[in-house]
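INFO batch 0412 | record 1 of 1 | parsing
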Amino acid sequence: MSLRDQLMKVGLVSKKQAQKAEATGRKQNHDSKKNKELANSLDAAKQAELEKIENEKNTRKELDKELNKQRDLLVQQREQFYRARQILNSNCLNDKSAEENYFFEENKKIRKVLVTPWQREMLARGKLGIGRPQDDIDEYYIIPLSVAKIIQDIAPQRLLMLHSELDDLEEVDGL
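INFO prediction complete | emitting tokens
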């Protein structure tokens, strides 16, 4: 005998009250199952949303890393450009009294710089080089070999001409 039957027999509850209590219990049981299913589907949706957010974060991080690499590369190139320009400006051997033209090639174009006879010989022997501090200005600097090697390492596009080094005993053609 169930608790319901016992309570009805004693007279504490009526048949209507017992049926109402049973219906309420069934309803609660049904609602709890429904809520569990809903909670499971919400958990799955939340999990999918969290995964989507996590993927977006990872994608954003990778994009940020790539942008930072590009930015760092640009900063490094800019620093090299300014460093090369500073080295060229501080080690320029151009002589204002030079009257001879020295012709050389830059990007399949013939360029010229004024040199002294001594500078012409040193350029031919590979003891001096020619550099350009900026692309937008047609100004060329005569620089010592040691400086030319430094420029070649940090900003090779700034070094326009450097002949192979010749010994002092070797003859230079045309001199």
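INFO post-check: The beta strands are 100-106, 109-115, 128-131, 141-144, 159-161.
INFO record closed
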